[in-house]
Write a structure and sequence with these properties.
By secondary structure, this protein is α/β, with parallel strands linked by helices. The chain has a single domain, classed as Rossmann fold, CATH 3.40.50. Helices cover 32% and strands 25% of the residues. It is globular, with a radius of gyration of 14 Å.
């Protein structure tokens, strides 16, 4: 990933607001690859994004289910690859079918096969002091760069 842009959040609520603010930029087939340590705020970011697209939707970590499907005008497929190591296991999730129907938001997204990362927006979350977080966005492919432009247009601090 070559192009980057950084945002910061001072709280859990700020992390959710950042996700919500980014949600209108998404369309069917988009891939958001989230990375960062356990407890970095990946699921809270997804919660904000999902609630902006589907108010009242229940958002929980898909650590054990691997995929949570959130129906709506723009369906969101919230994946967690933490427990999967082999590319074969990841490909068996049916990523193509999900991408044809909605947005893929993938925790531990760095584990996605390279072909899926080519046009993704990669967001690396770094915990700071207390609930503060830093979000470093990067993209390479054409759609990824479009998403990065939308990310850059957002305020820097949340």
């Amino acid at each position: 990933m070559s192009l980057t842009a950084v945002k910061t959040s001072a709280s859990v609520e700020g992390t959710e607001r950042l996700g919500a603010a980014f949600a209108p930029s998404l369309r069917v087939g988009d891939v958001i690859a989230l990375s960062g340590p356990l407890g970095a705020g990946k699921t809270r970011f997804v919660a904000g994004l999902v609630h902006a697209l589907t108010p009242g939707a229940r958002v929980r970590s898909p650590s054990f289910t691997l995929v949570n499907e959130i129906p709506g005008a723009l369906p969101v497929y919230h994946l967690d690859l933490y427990r999967l190591d082999a590319a074969r296991d990841i490909e068996s999730l049916g990523l193509e079918e999900y991408a044809e129907q909605g947005v893929l938001v993938v925790e531990w997204g760095e584990r996605l096969p390279h072909a899926w990362l080519a046009d993704a927006l990669a967001l690396k979350l770094e915990p700071g002091e207390g609930d503060a977080r830093e979000f470093a966005a990067a993209a390479d492919g054409e759609r990824g760069r479009q998403l990065l432009d939308a990310w850059r247009a957002l305020p820097e601090a949340w």
